[in-house]
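Shipment paperwork, digital attachment
Item: protein structure file
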Amino acid sequence: MPKFIIAGGLLLLLSLPLKAQGIRASLGEDSVRFIYVTEAWGQEIGSLDVEAGVLTTGTDNISLLHLGILVQHESQNAALKLSVGGRGYYTTINNKNAALLALGGDLLLSPDNWSGFGIGLSYYTAPSVTTFSDADAFTEYSVSVGYQMTPQANIYFGYQKVTIKMVSETSDRNIEKGSFLGIRIDF
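Attachment content:
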């Protein structure tokens, strides 16, 4: 059933009147991640961004799919970009399904006097009350340092950790943990 929800979400994403779009790609120590981001509609104080992504690991052969909706606020005075919202995640681990709704957001600080450099933070969490199937808890966070090479291209380096706790397991399972190198291209 969750696979049909994700497929329906992707179809909805493609049917929206889309504006600005971007692709994020990152390589971790044992993972690869792709995220497609688009602005569903904009407002004077910010925009509503819709995203779809997949994180795939090599060792455990786990694919973590997500669909997200984030409200973005950008402050020109403080060179601060804040996005808050939610993501729906789905994965299968050892023939057990995990579906969950996580709340969180992203923060990017890049003042003009830093000459294109910036610091980014990201945090999403799902307690047991917003997890379904065999999932019991979920946390994803990252910290990164980036550089804006052109107005459309950013490169960043950081540390990320993605953990999930399944109902039948006593401890959290690391889906991904370690450093990563990524690029974001806006078009």
